[in-house]
Design a protein that fits this description.
Layout: H1 2-13, E1 27-28, E2 31-32, H2 43-48, E3 52-53, E4 60-63, E5 74-80, E6 88-96, H3 101-118, E7 124-129, E8 139-147, E9 150-158, H4 161-167, E10 172-179, H5 180-188
Antiparallel strand pairs: 1-2, 3-4, 4-5, 5-6, 6-10, 7-8, 8-9, 9-10
Helix pairs in contact: 1-3
């Protein structure tokens, strides 16, 4: 039932006839890039969350509020430091698929069909990532869609048994929407 709700949510929340390729039309748990996180959490709730910064710049930070979500096991947000409006620059939803990679890939394919129907001017790019061997035999199956002001990425990660045990990680389906501003910073300043 949870998977069916994800598909229905994607179908109804991603469609906007006039701006089908605008990243702000994409929603996870009813929340979009460009929204203020204050519309969903109090400032006190946001401030009490652990902030995760990138190594070389503190311009943006991530938080993963502890909350029971309807469709996703976790939802995380990227915010800009010192932004009193708490505008969302990236949002990611995660669903755990403990040792159920095939189910994850089936769900990913369903989501990709929905996204490609909505982002009609976007070209889907598919590839795999083996983490350059840093996670043993783990592999991610990734699909990207470029939108007018950012991108949507959908992927399943199949962690190898050793990595799962050492890190306490599970195979998972991930859905992410990020603004171009955040991506440019991530690629050019976050790690350099």
């Amino acid at each position: 039932m949870k998977k069916f709700l994800i598909i229905l949510t994607l179908i109804f929340t991603l469609q906007t006839p006039s701006q089908a390729d605008d990243i702000r039309d994409f929603q996870i748990e009813g929340i979009s890039v460009g929204d203020s996180l204050l519309d969903y959490f109090s400032e006190a709730e946001i401030k009490e969350e652990e902030k995760l910064f990138y190594p070389k710049s503190k311009k943006f930070y991530g938080i993963t509020p502890s909350k029971k979500y309807e469709l996703y096991d976790d939802v995380s947000f990227i915010l800009k430091s010192k932004d009193k409006d708490y505008k969302i620059y990236s949002i990611k939803g995660l669903i755990e698929y403990e040792n159920k990679l095939n189910e994850c890939l089936e769900e990913k394919d369903k989501i990709l069909k929905v996204v490609s129907n909505i982002l009609k001017n976007s070209k889907e790019e598919n590839y795999t990532n083996d983490f350059e061997g840093s996670a043993g035999k783990s592999i991610a199956y990734i699909s990207d869609f470029k939108a007018s002001n950012g991108f949507i990425r959908v992927w399943c990660t199949d962690w190898d048994k050793k990595t799962e045990k050492e890190k306490n990680w599970y195979d998972s389906l991930n859905v992410n929407a990020s603004t171009q501003e955040f991506l440019d910073w991530l690629n050019n300043k976050a790690f350099k």
